[in-house]
Amino acid sequence: MKYTVESDIGRKRKVNEDRVAFFEHPDHFKLAILADGMGGHNAGDVASEMAIEEMKSHFLQVDQAQLETPDAKKAWLDDVISTINNKIYQHSLSHEGCNGMGTTLIAVLIDEQDCVVAHIGDSRVYYFTSEHVALITRDHSYVNVLLDHGEISEEEAENHPQKNFIVKSLGTESTIDPDFYNFTLEQSSYLLICSDGLSNKITTDEMAAILALPMSINEKGKKLIQLANDSGGEDNISVILLSLNDGEV
């Protein structure tokens, strides 16, 4: 498996509230994490930094026996995220400058080719093969709530003025209930984890076109960031790109 991790402040923001990381456990497990601090709240960068550092600490100390099955992996992620949510929430209550802070979270636990995804907010996971692209996660957004209730159409959702308003985030409430997804990586495929600074600016077709270019995975990650910036760069932009492509340059 090859990977690259990229994060850019963008062209409009004064602070990068995104945090991204990729960790490898001595027992072969890997963990990809992306946290997008809440731009409309105080200290979003504090919340995202806490999420990454706490996930890292728990992951590097976990015993292989706790991660033997997909259900065990999900239970471990759920427990760790609940603990971190409470820590961020309590920090926000006890530090005046951090009141109301929060963050999205994508945590992908990788066991060889098997993946378990924990998801909170509107950061995304895409899966690309040579034949198709799939959006693995579903945004926890106000627009999706309206869609679920049949109040707006898919077309209206794309241009809705409250498109970026999320209804679930890590650390803003005393409890949290992440969504979980399981899937298996195939050979000659890519896993793309990104903040909305990327997904709001470039299409899946544009993503796929970059992934098909004859360049290294590091160059592809930088190219994705560049295109989002060239398309406006109004937000922080972060990417974790993983590849099981035997033909990777």
TrEMBL record:
Its cofactor is Mn(2+). It holds the Pfam family PP2C_2. It is an enzyme of class 3 (hydrolase). Its EC number is 3.1.3.16. It catalyses: O-phospho-L-seryl-[protein] + H2O = L-seryl-[protein] + phosphate; O-phospho-L-threonyl-[protein] + H2O = L-threonyl-[protein] + phosphate. InterPro entries: PP2C, PPM-type-like_dom_sf, PPM-type_phosphatase-like_dom. The keyword Manganese applies. GO terms for molecular function: metal ion binding; protein serine/threonine phosphatase activity. Residues 2-244 form the PPM-type phosphatase domain. Keywords: Hydrolase, Manganese, Metal-binding, Protein phosphatase. SMART domains: PP2C_SIG, PP2Cc. PANTHER family: PROTEIN PHOSPHATASE 2C (PTHR13832), PROTEIN PHOSPHATASE PHPP (PTHR13832:SF860). This is protein-serine/threonine phosphatase. It comes from Lysinibacillus antri.
